[in-house]
Write a structure and sequence with these properties.
The protein has 250 residues and is an alpha/beta fold. It contains 9 helices and 11 strands. Strands 2-1-3-4-5 form a 5-stranded parallel beta sheet, sandwiched between helices. Helix 2 packs parallel to helix 3 and helix 6 packs across helix 8.
Length: 250
């Protein structure tokens, strides 16, 4: 899960980032409100955490700018301002939740997960695609009850696929999700991750769960049976007549 933290206080930002990374989130940090709005425009975040007191503009302006730009990223106000009026203003400006400091780490993680699930159309902490089950709370992956051990990057890829089930995701989307534009490797690394992930799922008994959409990217099958034939549009394109004529016949 990829989260944008908009926080002007360096010490507070480090503390919150460490807290969220400890439960498996990828964190990007914006120091100012203007930077936060720009990053929300440029990147696809699962959620944003927004301090209401910032060095340039306040959090309410960030909320209004994001919603005026029709950005639907869930935004949680994370602030030391705990008065009722501050909360009402935040919700009126477009906040999805309001958490006051000091916060309890398990509660913060649970509320983030609940908001992200709702935003993706899920109400339960467990996602399922055919025999594959993913627990957002424990980050455990099982196939027909068998625990599958994934690396951090493999888990992030599968989580993204399951949250966007039925949607074709480009390799750019995976790179953005995994690295956030920072120290990105070559795009072919996504093929390597997908290959390893598929192998682990297949060994556990989940075949053909991740589909290659030629020329576009990858998607998680939206049917419960991995053996269901693929739609023609998702199959590898047929060879051209020139290519066919160049093949030798045995």
């Amino acid at each position: 899960m990829r989260v944008l933290l908009v926080e002007g206080d360096g010490s507070a930002a480090r503390g919150t980032s460490c807290t969220l990374r400890s439960v498996g989130y990828m964190i990007d940090h914006a120091v100012t409100g203007h930077e936060g709005v720009e990053m929300l425009r440029r990147y696809d975040y699962d959620l944003a955490l927004l301090e209401m007191v910032l060095p340039d503009i306040d959090g309410y302006e960030v909320l209004r700018a994001a919603r005026a730009a029709r950005l639907d990223t869930p935004i949680v106000a994370l602030s030391s301002l705990n008065g009722a009026q501050a909360k009402v203003r935040a919700f009126s400006a477009g906040a999805d939740d309001y958490i006051t400091r000091p916060y309890d780490t398990p509660e913060l993680a649970a509320r983030i997960q609940a908001i992200v699930r709702r935003s993706k159309g899920y109400s339960q902490p467990v996602l399922q695609a055919g025999p594959v089950r993913l627990s957002l709370d424990s980050r455990e992956i099982t196939v027909k009850g068998i625990l599958v051990h994934l690396t951090g990057k493999e888990y992030m890829i599968l989580e993204l696929l399951m949250l966007r089930r039925g949607t074709v995701l480009s390799k750019f989307a995976f790179l953005d999700h995994l690295y956030g534009g920072m120290d990105e490797p070559e795009m072919k690394i996504i093929d390597v991750f997908i290959c390893k992930l598929r192998k682990k799922l297949q060994q556990a008994g989940a075949k053909n769960v991740i589909t290659t959409v030629w020329g576009q990217g990858y998607m998680l099958r939206d049917d419960s049976d991995g053996d269901t034939p693929l739609p023609i549009a998702m199959m590898k394109p047929p060879r051209s007549s020139d290519e066919r004529s160049s093949l030798s016949v045995v």
